[in-house]
């Protein structure tokens, strides 16, 4: 995936990203509301030299004091200090657990000791901090060697008593909300990217081109409401619209790829599966070719699930099969549709031996006759992965177009279609991407999961 594909994946899943971000923020708010508040109180003890008659003795005493302060910092969190505090305050805890709530430090190059205590009750936090500050000198005195063994005495004095805090230090609800929002957004982004990486369906134009290594001759958008009678025919209903213009572009691109193939007239449209839009594309391509005055014939070669007659409103009983079994002459089976230079050869009656009819010299001869009568022959063939009819027809036409539905057709299915055509000795002239959604009146398309014919 390139950068633009990542951006497109995020845009497609923007709702999920927003929802997960909001849920993360709500979870952070809930955590903040449910977490018991923690209060913090701090007392401060000053460590000083109590004796010294000369400047040298005072200097030595100060140096000694700074060195021993760190020992007092460690001492303040030991049972020697905390057990008397627990007894005096009648606390329901142990020295080990209380030590986890006590934080003692000495600012660098000072002889101050800061004693900070965390508690769910503000009064208890202050009482414990002050009790430790009072107990520490007593414990030091009981542990200090006799005056004969020390160069000077040390005095510990409480200079700042802890007071009841007015506000808890935690939970920080605003911080929890921010963290929850960010984590939710990251989860949404991860979801969007992972879903894109695991999505095996063909997406946009670039995805189709990378999958097939073939030119994308057209990208046709969704058009019309599902309950419209002629929703599959923008060339008739809205000839100046974006959808109609996309089929004109398909017509121009087909001319371009055939520019080096003199006499090329017949094109077959197939797909991997039913509902990918091949019939819609065949109908509108035929209309686009006839629009500029060319003589065009549209053939419904899907003898198992024909749909051209229904889409055009023409008679289905007389058509391709009746011509192939020589029940009706070709001229009588052709039906004019919309304009005088566009004829349709519907499927005819559905035969029990569709494959035998398609794989016969009569089919080859019929296509040859149609090429003599018309400038273009457009054949709507069955889905190639459903039946092998399209593989056989591909040998008889000048070019095959594979129709792929954006957001529906899987890449593996497209690959299977190409492999089947390759085994038949044919290479498609290009592909058409259907079901693309026009985001504005232009040629900007994105995924869509809506259904089309």
Descriptive notes:
With 453 residues, the protein is an alpha/beta fold. The chain folds into three domains: 3-35 and 171-195, no CATH class; 39-160, EIF_2_alpha (Alpha-Beta Plaits, 2-Layer Sandwich); 202-446, P-loop containing nucleotide triphosphate hydrolases (Rossmann fold, 3-Layer(aba) Sandwich). Helix content is 47%, strand content 18%. The protein has 18 helices and 13 strands. The strands form two sheets. Strands 5, 6, 7, 8, 9, 10, 11, 12 and 13 form a nine-stranded mixed sheet that branches. Strands 2-3-1-4 form a four-stranded antiparallel sheet. Residues 225-230 and 439-453 have low confidence and may be disordered.
What labels describe this entry?
453 residues; alpha/beta; Alpha-Beta Plaits; Rossmann fold; 3 domains; 9-stranded mixed sheet; 4-stranded antiparallel sheet; 18 helices; 18% strand; rod-shaped; disordered C terminus
List the helices and strands and how they pair.
Blueprint (H helix, E strand, L loop, with lengths): L2 H10 L1 H21 L4 E11 L5 H21 L3 H11 L5 H7 E4 L6 E8 L2 H22 L10 E7 L12 H26 L6 H8 L3 E6 L12 H4 L4 H16 L8 E6 L6 H14 L4 E5 L7 H5 L7 H5 L5 H4 L1 E3 L1 E7 L8 H5 L2 H13 L2 E5 L8 H6 L4 E7 L5 H13 L6 E9 L6 E2 L7
Helix pairs in contact: 1-7, 2-7, 4-5, 4-6, 10-11
């Amino acid at each position: 995936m390139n950068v633009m594909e990542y951006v497109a994946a995020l845009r497609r899943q923007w709702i999920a990203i927003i929802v997960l971000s909001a849920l993360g923020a709500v979870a952070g708010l809930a955590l903040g509301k449910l977490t018991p508040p923690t209060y913090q109180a701090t007392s401060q003890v000053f460590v000083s030299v109590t004796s010294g008659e000369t400047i040298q003795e005072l200097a030595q005493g100060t140096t000694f004091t700074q060195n021993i302060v760190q020992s007092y910092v460690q001492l303040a969190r030991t049972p020697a200090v905390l057990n008397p505090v627990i007894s005096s305050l009648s606390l329901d805890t142990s020295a080990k657990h209380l030590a986890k709530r006590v934080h003692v430090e000495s600012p660098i190059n000072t002889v101050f000791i800061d004693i900070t205590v965390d508690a769910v009750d503000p009064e208890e936090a202050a009482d414990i901090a002050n009790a430790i500050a009072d107990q520490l000198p007593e414990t030091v005195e009981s542990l200090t060697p006799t005056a004969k063994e020390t160069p000077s005495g040390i005095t510990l004095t409480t200079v700042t008593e802890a007071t009841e805090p007015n506000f808890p230090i935690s939970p920080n609800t605003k911080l929890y909300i921010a963290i929850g929002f960010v984590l939710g957004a990251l989860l949404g982004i991860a979801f969007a990217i992972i879903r894109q990486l695991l999505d095996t369906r063909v997406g946009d134009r670039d995805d189709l081109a990378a999958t097939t290594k073939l030119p994308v001759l057209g990208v046709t958008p969704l058009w019309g409401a599902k309950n419209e009678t002629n929703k599959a025919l923008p060339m008739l209903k809205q000839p100046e619209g974006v959808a109609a213009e996309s089929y004109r572009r398909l017509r121009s691109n087909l001319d371009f790829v055939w520019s080096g193939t003199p006499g090329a007239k017949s094109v077959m449209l197939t797909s991997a599966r039913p509902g990918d839009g091949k019939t819609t594309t065949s109908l509108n391509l035929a209309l686009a070719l006839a629009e500029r005055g060319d003589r065009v014939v549209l053939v419904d070669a899907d003898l198992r699930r024909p749909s051209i007659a229904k889409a055009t409103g023409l008679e289905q009983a007389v058509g391709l099969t009746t011509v192939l079994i020589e029940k009706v002459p070709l001229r009588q089976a052709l039906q004019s549709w919309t304009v005088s230079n566009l004829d349709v050869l519907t499927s005819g009656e559905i035969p029990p031996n569709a494959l035998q009819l398609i794989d016969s010299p009569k089919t080859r001869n019929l296509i040859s006759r149609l090429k003599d009568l018309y400038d273009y022959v457009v054949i709507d063939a069955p889905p190639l992965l459903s039946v092998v009819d399209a593989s056989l027809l591909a040998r008889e036409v000048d070019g095959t177009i594979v129709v792929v539905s954006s957001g529906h057709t899987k890449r593996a299915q497209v690959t299977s279609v190409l492999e089947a055509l390759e085994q038949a000795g044919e290479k498609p002239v290009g592909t058409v991407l259907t079901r693309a959604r026009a985001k504005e009146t232009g040629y900007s398309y994105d995924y869509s999961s809506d259904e089309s014919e």
